Request: fold
Amino acid sequence: MVGITGRTPDADDGTFARSLEPLVHTDRYEADVVFESASRSVGTTAYPEYPIRIVENDEYWVCLEGRIYDRDDETLERELLEVAAHVLAADGDDEFLTEWVLETDGEFLLVAADKGSDRLGLLNDPLARLPTYYFHDGETFLFSRELRYLINEAPIEGFDPMGAAHCLLFGYSLGDRTLIDGANRLRPGTKLTVDPERGAITETTLHRFDFGEPAYADRSRSRNAAELVDRFERACRQRSGDGTRDVISLSGGLDSRSVLAGYHAEGIPTTAATMASDEFVPPSDVELARELADEFDIDWQRYDVGPPDGSDLDRIIKTKNGQIGLLTSFILDFFRQLRAEYDAGLTYVTGDGGDKVLPDLTPATPIDDESALVDHVIAENCFLSLEQVAQITGLSVDAIRRSVRDRLRLYPETDPDAKYVHFLVYERGVNFLFEGEDRNRFFFWSTTPFYSIDFFRYAMNCPPEQKARYNLYRSFLTELAPAAAALTHPDYGVPVASTRHEAAAFVDDLLSRYPRAFDVVRPIVKSLNGLDTESQLRPSTVDCIRTQIEQCEAVDDVLSTDELHAFLDAYADHDRLSVYRLFALTSFIDDIHSTESVLESRRDVVFG
Reply:
């Protein structure tokens, strides 16, 4: 993965530089040692266009990965040195740092070094938009934007059984867990300082969002919508112009059309790109994207993609290390076409996050207590059932369920509904969806205005009653661009700004309270609205997993091979998401432990 990597103490005789080489995934990547002393080494692995900035003075050295959108260069460089001083000070002013990260619109990882004391510090943005991992055992400290570096260089024993169970259950591990025992995920809004002389690290959470008491519940929906539009347009404006061009990932959905409308409202020149595929993208979605581009009179390109092959899946495994699934590997072809059409200096702008900040995330049915909340979290977010995960991992159902409960207990909210919102943002969002966005940065910088900190803070303080049944989203989009709201919402097959949309959303909300009825109606609605695709699970996928189980003995050290075979014997009874979730984990184990992985030997095999 692109980004910063570092360690203390320094590895002598050039071994640190060599340790970066496995992170150079293409011939466009370059590995550079950017800071080195007797006790610390910091390096970068990135393509030339990737945003990395280094500033220093006589006291401090600072490396910033990512972009900060609301500062000019001169102001930013001055602030980075000031922030570094607070990060590295033994008695640093955490209040200053908290205020700074909450008032800074950016996606970043900051690494700072004190030239006099050998102290090292890390600081990330309040949402941890750039996934980062670290390891510390009292002697060695390593951190990297790529989990693979810790696997290669840290004295790590093996997989974390509960982390593996979480990944099979949800598709991601919870909290600071990863798949690897001893490898931790840097949590959002965190300051991490390292004192090599004492062999100690200090991790300080500067800010954690509490979704329990919406601050703007007393404001009308129309006022909240207007405030959101103002912040959204500003976020679009601030994100524009940093790259060689802004390319909007456009589908027919509400999130990407909002981005298109926001850039249009600010008069920002943009290009829209839409991925088309008979197997993976509904034709109605592509047609709606074309209509939106025509409505806003912008340059629009359609890019046809086919199913991924083994080399695509292998690339995902090697760069994201089991942190995201393999089912969407077909998107790599889309990215390759975009980069070839333009260049790696483009800014890829998505609607990611729109589905988190504007809809009502609270449970459809009331949750009375902690036990019911745990049940709801698992039922609504699982890929495999709790019982299947227990059988495959060898952990008990009670142990896995208890680990979910213990994680929920750490959230700041007291109301179960608000705790569930926290889960969707901090676990599914931070630990899973942000990893998917990070995959985009393998090709070019990727961002979204929905996670602008000012917009995010305001939106998450709007009450769920206003967000229910798309009401706030409808008001927001109508205020932002009536033309966008006048076009069809693909989920419902009717225009957003229509009474029929309100009625459809009402029925959708009602059905969601009765899951069995919803499961019956959903395929009918998808068919009527043209949302079906031709995608099916190919036999090559199941055969590949079986071969991994049989050829890689390490799979049996992590998972029960008997249970895996039993699961695959009945693969026709499972949906593709479940099979591919398992596939990601077996592929990761195989890639780490095999001289030549099964995917490496099947680079030309077509998957889907």
The longest helix spans residues 416-440. Residues 361 and 421 are 6 Å apart (CA to CA).
